[in-house]
Amino acid sequence: MKKIFVIIVLLLSILLFSACIKRENKEEDTSVDLDLSVCDSIIVYSQVTNMNENPSEYLDKTIKMKGKIKSNYSEKYDTTYYFIAVNDATMCCEAYVEILWENDNTYPIDNKKIEIIGRFSYYIEDSKKYYCIKLSSLKEL
Hints:
Layout: H1 2-18, E1 34-35, H2 41-53, E2 62-74, E3 79-87, E4 94-101, E5 113-125, E6 128-140
Parallel strand pairs: 1-2, 4-6
Antiparallel strand pairs: 2-3, 2-5, 3-4, 5-6
């Protein structure tokens, strides 16, 4: 049963990767491994959920996507964490991936629509691994 589940998940992942259709009016960006900016909300939501559940499949891949910026302040670490949020097709649920500038660039205010490009990676905090997209580009839409 477990093998069947793993096979189904792998097949769905392959299907989702191949389901992103390039729009004719967009130029192809060959530096991006996974361009979710041209995909519909079902595909994007599924991919972000999969990034959180199977992060090793995305490590070191350059990802481009659109969504809304969200933030969360941690009193424990006295720091603000930033995320890109995407909705499912019914607009009832959100999935998040942490985004992180490697230098001290600023972030837009919460709920602004953004487009990002960055490398899926991780950082260690309190001996725990946290996955994120390390940004090379962030623009407000």
